[in-house]
Amino acid sequence: MPEKPQHEVTAAEDPALAFQTHDHRHCVGTMLARAEAVCADKGLRLTPVRRRVLEILLETHKALGAYEVLDRLAADGFGHQPPVAYRALDFLVTHGLAHRIQRLNAFAACMHTTDDSDAGHEAVFLICRDCNALAEAPGLRLRAALEAAAAGADFAVEGAAIEAIGLCARCRAAAGEGNDNAGVGA
Amino acid sequence: MPEKPQHEVTAAEDPALAFQTHDHRHCVGTMLARAEAVCADKGLRLTPVRRRVLEILLETHKALGAYEVLDRLAADGFGHQPPVAYRALDFLVTHGLAHRIQRLNAFAACMHTTDDSDAGHEAVFLICRDCNALAEAPGLRLRAALEAAAAGADFAVEGAAIEAIGLCARCRAAAGEGNDNAGVGA
DNA sequence: CTTGAACTGTTATACCGTAACATATACTTC
DNA sequence: GAAGTATATGTTACGGTATAACAGTTCAAG
Ligand SMILES: [Zn+2]
Ligand SMILES: [Zn+2]
Ligand SMILES: [Zn+2]
Ligand SMILES: [Zn+2]
After folding, report:
1. B120: left (phi over 0), alpha (psi -120 to 50) or beta
2. Contact yes or no for A27/A18 (Cβ under 8 A)
């Protein structure tokens, strides 16, 4: 069954979209614009490599390995060596424009519009083990629960990685009906 | 200031102990006994390598890299090749006797006595960025909060890694007073 | 234009993890 | 106990992930 037409909403506002067919150009445009705004605001330089890396990450709601990113960069005429990718990725992660997904040794574009707690903001990552799509859900509640749990050990939380593995609605449905369906989120 | 004398409590019952001076032999004894009980119960074989790996992990409330474990194994007359360590570690992780800490690409002995949800039980890891000590706090509340957050994206959580970075009480105190203090937890 | 800081690119290397196969040990069945 | 099967241990070899160190380039002032 085909999806209903989408209105102008990005996965930044509704994480569930990452697992659905949607007009992804809105996601890309919104997040790229935010990146430019953030950099202008903080006096950071969104150089060609960095911008291209962000674009590459934004192409899909999935996490990409550094070497995958590197291959794409190389194909675009940038450097062919790991540090080229890692440095750009570090820049994006440091300034809250991308996230490292520990579990996958991979990176994904940040999907937040709210630049209130810009760098190192808290997020929860939902990773579908079937289609590999990745959504970024708001983690404020979880952060509070985490700090409560940590308080019991007299531990001061500075940052947290919260990564859940599971099945998105689409893949659950497919599994239940013996259906097969193609990729999503790009 | 020296710590007050400890009674017979392990880090399994009080995660905070992982960050304090304590009689660690209780931790080791308790967890080793639990491992044997679990294996006997499930018909698993806690072979010499596996047992030794668990002992190595139990030596300290810190996460150890696979190659670090391997070096210790080799020194004890076991194999010198990576798979020797990885297989034993996989066994321990699979059966809930150890955990993989994604953020550190490292492993730590499980510090739970409650074998209710034996394998793959949920836990929150608190990692002190200063002394590298690691505590395992109960994660039931967080798991609930996580499922609630995931429900918003119609995502079914099957497993989660929750890893917090921060400062333990001891290291906070040391930082605050310009003190220096030695290692802890072993 | 000069100077220093930041960015890009390179070589080389270290760390983390697994595939594939050979050997040895432990259970099962006769 | 012997034969056969499953499990565990050990080895070689390789692939994926990440960083150190250094050289050249671009940029923003001064
Ligand atoms: Zn999108
Ligand atoms: Zn999915
Ligand atoms: Zn202990
Ligand atoms: Zn500490």
Report:
1. left
2. no
Yes or no: say if B141 and B124 are a contact pair by the CB < 8 Å rule. Answer: no
Q: Would you give per-residue pLDDT tens digits along chain A (186 residues)?
A: 445 555 577 777 788 889 999 999 999 999 999 999 999 989 999 999 999 999 999 999 999 999 999 999 999 999 999 999 999 999 999 999 999 999 999 999 999 876 554 555 778 999 999 999 999 998 888 999 999 999 999 999 999 999 999 999 999 998 877 655 444 544
CA distance B141 to B138: 8
What single letter denotes the amino acid at residue B39?
C
- The 3-class secondary structure across B18-62, one letter per residue, is HHCCCCHHHHHHHHHHHHHHHHHHHCCCCCHHHHHHHHHHHCCCE
| Ordered structural domains, chain A, with CATH | 15-174 (1.10.10.10)
* Assigned token pair, A99: 């996230």
**pTM score of the predicted model:** 0.88
Smallest CA-to-CA distance from B39 within B76, B83, B91, B86 is with B91
Of the residues A3, A19, A134, A146, the best mutation for testing chain B's interface (the one with the most B CB atoms within 10 Å of its CB) is A146
Give the span between the Cα atoms of B157 and A144, in whole angstroms: 19
Strands (E), A85-122: 98-101, 106-109
> Which is nearest to B106 in space by CA: B122, B123, B78, B127?
B127
Taking an 8 Å cut-off on Cβ atoms, the answer to whether A155 and B166 are in contact is: yes
Per-residue DSSP letters for A22-77? --HHHHHHHHHHHHHHHHHHHT----HHHHHHHHHHHTSSB-B-HHHHHHHHHHTT
Which of A139, A145, A157 is facing B141, going by the closest CB pair? A145
